[in-house]
């Protein structure tokens, strides 16, 4: 009874101060009760989301204008073209965005509900993942390195990430499917894994390693490790990929956005060029991508060097880590395109961090059963410190994207959007 009262109080607090309501739930409730409160917090965060004109969120809000008063016949016509990889002009490339845009703009007629719905779906799968991984004895105090590893898993793709709508929602859907299948072997999780490409077209490719890893019992650890190490020194032939993409207009458009060749045959990565032209501060330049990917590789190599894979892992950990290594291998092979490498490696890191977190929470990262425990502990700290720019970047991004009303009185932001400014903007008024 007391647990239900605390849950009710936490939910009520969300409408006065979402941050305090979240803190109350995290501090006092078990996972089975806190999940609802955390999801509701993410929905509120989505309803007050702050973003610039160049953000993905702004592009989706403009897309909704194409769906105003759309008929069901046009909806299904556009859906057919999306499924056959030939989307019509003004349509997204993916089933997920198409359905949500139609539901919010045409059926409900309320553009403002688009991101709360996106946040709910993202939050559901994100929180499900957290509840699976972040499990330890109640009242146990976590040592600093373990606490930092837990934080890294939480912030890798957290509350600031759902504004992209498709990419990281697809990642968490795939992750939950992979985890569920390796844990239980139930076929329903294979279906969940197959849903990821419906959310984002890229998961037709990014999801391939996850399906290969389902047969991890039949694949020797040395073969997986060897392929992973080889991938650092070789790439797919981009010319062949460009040629193959020309058979489908959508594939050609996608590939040309990530990689193309000039008249002399030299490869051009448009996104990498654009990033190099930017003048980002150090924590944005390294914390958004590079530190995460270097850190992911560092943790992967640590688990390999320590001799944990596969000998000292549970079957679940073996499945998750194999998925991470194979996905990182795919990312390395496709490193000629920064956008492909970045998305694929971000997926790899979540599996690697999940295994690191699970093992740290069960005490495996004392490294007492390794040949050189002191060296392994030192390398563990090196891996954590590589992520420092990511931690700083996360805090910075959180301040930019979070409304001041996430701290209190959220209903003011709902009824008067002109007052809805970010925490960073409010701080700027006093500096």
UniProtKB/TrEMBL annotation:
Spans through the membrane: 6-24, 36-52, 95-122, 142-159, 189-212, 291-309, 321-342, 348-367, 379-412
Alphabetic keyword roster: Membrane, Transmembrane, Transmembrane helix
Protein name: EpsG family protein
Species for this entry: Flavobacterium arundinis
Organism classification: Bacteria, Pseudomonadati, Bacteroidota, Flavobacteriia, Flavobacteriales
């Amino acid at each position: 009874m007391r647990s239900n009262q605390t849950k009710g109080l936490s939910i009520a607090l969300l409408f006065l101060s979402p941050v305090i309501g979240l803190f109350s739930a995290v501090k006092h409730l078990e996972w089975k009760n806190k999940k609802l409160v955390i999801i509701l917090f993410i929905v509120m965060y989505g309803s007050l989301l702050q973003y610039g004109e160049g953000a993905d969120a702004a592009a989706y809000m403009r897309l909704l204008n194409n769906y105003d008063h759309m008929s069901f016949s046009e909806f299904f016509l556009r859906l057919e073209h999306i499924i056959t990889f030939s989307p019509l002009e003004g349509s997204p490339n993916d089933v997920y965005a198409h359905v949500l845009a139609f539901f919010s703009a045409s059926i409900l007629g309320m553009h403002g509900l688009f991101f709360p719905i996106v946040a709910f779906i993202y939050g559901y799968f994100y929180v499900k993942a957290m509840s699976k991984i972040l499990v330890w004895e109640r009242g146990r105090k976590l040592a600093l390195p373990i606490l930092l590893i837990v934080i890294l898993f939480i912030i890798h793709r957290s509350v600031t990430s759902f504004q992209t709508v498709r990419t990281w929602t697809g990642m968490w859907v795939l992750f939950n499917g992979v985890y569920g299948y390796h844990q239980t072997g139930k076929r329903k999780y294979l279906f969940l894994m197959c849903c990821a490409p419906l959310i984002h077209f890229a998961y037709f490719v990014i999801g391939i390693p996850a399906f290969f890893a389902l047969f991890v019992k039949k694949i020797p650890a040395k073969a997986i490790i060897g392929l992973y190490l080889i991938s650092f020194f070789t790439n797919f032939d981009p010319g062949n990929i460009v040629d193959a993409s020309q058979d489908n207009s959508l594939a050609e458009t996608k590939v040309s956005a990530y990689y193309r060749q000039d008249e002399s045959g030299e490869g051009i990565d448009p996104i990498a060029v654009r990033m190099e032209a930017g003048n980002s501060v150090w924590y944005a330049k390294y914390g958004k991508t590079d530190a995460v990917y270097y850190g992911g590789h560092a943790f992967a190599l640590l688990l390999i060097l320590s001799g944990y894979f596969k000998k000292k892992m549970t079957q679940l950990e073996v499945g998750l880590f194999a998925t991470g290594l194979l996905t990182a291998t795919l990312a390395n092979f496709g490193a000629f395109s920064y956008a492909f490498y970045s998305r694929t490696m971000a997926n790899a890191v979540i599996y690697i961090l999940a295994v690191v977190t699970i093992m740290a929470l069960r005490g495996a990262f004392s490294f007492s059963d390794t040949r050189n425990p002191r060296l392994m502990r030192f390398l563990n700290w090196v891996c954590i410190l590589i992520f420092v720019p990511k931690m700083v970047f996360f805090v910075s991004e959180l301040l930019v994207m979070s409304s001041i009303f996430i701290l209190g009185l959220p209903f003011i932001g709902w009824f008067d959007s002109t007052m809805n400014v970010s925490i960073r903007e409010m701080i700027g008024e006093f500096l």
